[in-house]
Structure formats: structure tokens, C-alpha cells
Amino acid sequence: MHKSLTFIFFLLPAAAFANPSFTVGSNPYETIFAYPHDILKWPDRGVFVYANPQNLPWQGDVTDITKRPSETYTNNYQNVEFAPPQGYEGDPKSVHSWMRVSSYIYQRQTTVGGLTSTRYGKFLVELGRTTMDMELRSDGVGRASESSGETASYYMVPFQGETNGARADYDLKLIYANELFNDPFGFKVHYTKKTSERPDGYIKFTRGGVTYDTPHLTWGWATTGCNHIFGYSHINTDAFYLSDYTVYQGHELDLQASFEHEGNYKTGIRYRSHVEEGDNYRWSYDEGSEVEGDYHVDELWRDRNGERLIRAYSKVTLCEHGSAKGGVLFFLQHGSHSKTAVNKLVESDPDWEESKKEIAVEANPFLNYELRGGYLDFGLLLEYTHSGMENTQMRWNSVSHSEQPGVLWSTDPYMGWSPSWESYSKGSEWFFATGFETGSSIGVYRRLSILSKLTILKKFTHEEKIYGNSEIPEGGMSYKFYQTHHRNNYRNETWMTGGVGLSFGRGPIQTFLTLQLPLAYLITQTTELSNNDEKLFSHEMKNMWQVQQPTSARLLFVYAF
Question: Are 441 and 451 within 8 A, CB to CB?
Fold first, then answer.
């Protein structure tokens, strides 16, 4: 009993690529995430407390916290001292320019739970809370320049700004497992309530001797001109304004069932439904002002996000020799994602909708090797995923004199690299992912063990975006879409992460300290934009190694009855 709950939550992989944790290993304290019936391999009774504080990178978008203006935005902390302009012969102090920007999500996750065995089966109950405090801080002195002939003039813009947001998730998880004709089965119900607060912040700057202080939120700070928030076309410090944001409230329901036959066939099925809805706030400038204004709620429409997926998977052992087992994990998933605007006052079709449907297929060979007091797992990933996207809206049909739903957006491409806010009418995406994952547990002395995990993935993606206009043709009765442009994006990504940990126990107490290594990735991408006749833009870009998630520490305290 003293080794109870030895590896709960241990070295969980970061969820940033393909389908994470593609290898279903031999550790029942990890495989419970795929097969609820594996709690039958846990001790009869115990309680646990888990804590995982983590600082995550953020660019400042309070609605989509993973959003970046483009793939070139990789840093969320900058402290820059700008050199004087080339050829400048005046006093360097008069054109001294600097910028300091810090932007993080401070995520704090806490979980408590326990399990018990009865004559009716085994039960696990878990309560969790995850908070995310988002903070962006910016200050400095920007330097703008204007040229007239061979004469250059410089203007200094001192600034200071903040963007703040907060979210919280509350979790309840119930797991039940038992045996039927000596074959184990299990069920899991996981409910999450999602809440968020209305963000706040400001940007304060001085231009031409006039100081402006406005609640306009900023994001995506850079050391080159981009959105020209200070009113100058050429400036060494700039950012993007958040033209709107949505304050979502919602919930997620995750249902799972699993079954195992003779120890060689483990099958699971999972259904997840995620729904969020919230008020949209859009910025509007005061009359006659290009700076002052405020955010105002949309009185008629609310934004709604929806996600549904169903997946089935089966771990099949095909060969066994001594302490080694080998086989294949088969995986099939269908998912749908949608973002819509729904009427607050009456039931009606959505004003607009962004939809995406996908299907994923995996066949992952694996090898499990049992060590004395530990294990060694190794698995390969072979995954193919295809998605289709459509962006539609409701438009007035002047022929039928009625609203026509499901009309593709009329869109124009952005000339150059595709920014995150670029609209398109429809598209498709496919990717192929491969790589490996290995994990091990090695007993060192009595109840002292060393754990490790390494994941390396390659992902190849092709995305096609279609642009054009929806019009009612002459003599027609409904809208028809006419393509004008298309874009092909190609991405070649390498992902790498891992973790190391120690576990030590004495009596009924078990303590764990783990270190999740950074999630790093390398990306090479190409974009090609064409109209119906010729190629308009083509470019390739290769980024340096970047960190998607930094190092984090995890602590687990367990008391076994």
C-alpha cells in the first residue's frame, strides 16, 4: 500500500502539437487519461493534492490567449535600448529611445482528490481549480522620424500601458471502474465551468506636447512600425490596438468509457462538448478624435464558441516476448469547431459563422518493456488529419426579398504574409505528423525513483485559403461565390519537450517533485498568393528555435490509507 498513487499527473506532455501523449504506455497512473478502468490497478484508498504553478507566454489578446499577430512574434519580454539614428550628429540624449515590454499569463492549477473501493466497484473523485491572470506591461520612449529631402526630423513619444485579464476554470471529475466476467471496464464524467472577467488597461503617451490617456487595450508590441498607434508612419516602437474583445462564460463536458479484454486489447471512446458564450465589446472613437474613445457592448449580438469531438482508440498487443510487449495503437477522431454571433433578443440563424470540421487517423506502433521496479516505453507517431473550413454570413437577398443564410464571406487577401486577422471565404488544411515519445521509471533505492520523458515530433502542414465575392448572378435567385484569389501556406515544424522527476516515499506519505522541460519548436514556412491568372506573392521564412511553453515545476503530495 505504501507505493500508492506513485505517478499521478507525472510528466504530462504539453498540449501543443498533433494529438499529445500519443503513446499509451504501461503506467496506469498515466493511462487513466485514456482508459478510466485503469484505476483498478491503483491502491484501494488514498487522497492526493497537486499543484502546478506556471508562467506562460502571451502577446496580449484577451479573447484568444494563444493568438499572435503573425508567426514572427516570438518574444513576450523585451528590454531594448535603441542606438542613435545613423548619421545623427546632434546630442544623443535628445533622441534617446528605449522600450520595455513584459507579457505573461500566470497560471495556477490546484487539484485535490481521493479514491475508495467498495463492493460495487472503485470510485475516484477529483476537484480542481485553474486560474489565469494575464498581465501586459509596456513603457518607454519611442522615436519617430520624418524626412524632407535630405533633412530628417525626430519626435520623441514617451508611453506607458497595461492590458489585464483574468480567467478561472472549476473542475469536477468522477471515475467509476469494475469488472464484468473478469474483464475491466470504466466510465469517466468530467465537467468544467469556465469563467472570465472583463479586461481592463490603458495606453498613455505624449505626442506633440499633448498627453493622451485612453482605455484602448494594446497587444503585439514590436520594435518596428505596424499599426501606427502613436500616429507616426515611421517609428521604432509600435503595437496593435484591440479593436474588440469578447468576455466568454461557458462549460465543457467530457465523457469517456473504456474496456479491456484479456490484457491485450484496450479500447476507449470519448465524447467532448465545449460551449462558450459572451458579450462582445467593440472600440469606438469619440466624435472628432483619433485617439480618445471607449469600448461599447454589442446590444444585439453575442459571440458563441462551440467544439465537439468524438474519438475512438484501441491499443492492440500483437507480440509478447519475456518482459516486452509490442503492438499498435489505432486512433480515429472527428471534430467540429464553430464561432458564431447569436441574437440576444430572438431565436434566429446566426449573423455569421466560422466553422471547421476535421477527421484524424493514427496508427502508432509501441513497445512496453517491464524493468525491475520500473518500466521503459517507446512509441512512434503516424498521424494524418484533414480539415475543411467555411466562413459564412446571413445576407439580404434582393430577389427573394428575404435573408439568405450560409452565404460565403466576400473577402480580399492581405498582400504579403497572412496576418492572424486576415479573413478568407473558405479553405482546407491537412497535416502529417510523425515522431517518437519515450518514457521511463527507474528505481534507485527502495522508494526513490527517477522518472524521465522525451518527445520529438515533426509536423508537415498544407493550408489553402480561398478568397472571392458572393454575388447574385444576373437571372439568378440566390448568391453564388466567385473565386478571385487563393493562398497556399506550407509549414514544416519540429517540436521537442521532455521532463525529469523524483519520487520519494516514507510510510503512508509520498512526495513528488518534477520539472517539465521547455516546449521548443522550429518552424520553416512558405506562403504563395495567386489570383486566377498569376502568382502575386511568394516567400519563405525560417525562424530560430523558439519556446512555446517555459520550464515549470510540479509538486504532488499523496497520503495512502
Answer: yes
Residue 340 has pLDDT above 50, yes or no: yes
Residue-level pLDDT at 355 = 96
Question: For 204-259, how does the pLDDT look when each residue is reduced to its tens digit (9 = 90+)?
Answer: 999 989 999 999 999 999 888 888 899 998 899 999 999 999 999 999 999 999 99
The length of the chain, given as a count of residues:
561
150 φψ region: left (φ > 0), alpha (ψ -120 to 50), beta (else): alpha
Whether 152 maps to a domain, the answer reads yes
At 301, which amino acid appears? W
Instruction: Tell me how far apart the 2 most distant CA atoms of the chain are, in Å.
Output: 90
Q: DSSP code of 44? A: S
Instruction: State the average pLDDT over residues 499-511.
Output: 86
In this predicted model, what pLDDT tens digit does every residue of 512-538 receive, in sequence order? Answer: 888 989 888 899 999 999 998 899 999
Residue 398 within any structural domain of the chain:
yes
Say if residues 189 and 174 touch (Cβ distance below 8 Å): yes
Asked if residue 9 is part of any domain, the answer here is no
Please give the residue that has the higher pLDDT: either 359 or 420.
359
Q: Are 166 and 195 in contact (CB under 8 A)?
A: no
Structural domain boundaries, residue 206: 28-560
Residue appearing with cell numbers 504532488: 556
Nine cell digits for residue 200 = 481592463
Q: How many domains does the chain have?
A: 1
Domain presence at residue 447: yes
Q: Show the cell assigned to 288.
A: 472628432
Take residue 88 and report the three cell numbers written for it: 545623427
Buried b (16+ CB within 10 A) or exposed e, 113-136: bbbeeeeebbbbebebebebebbb
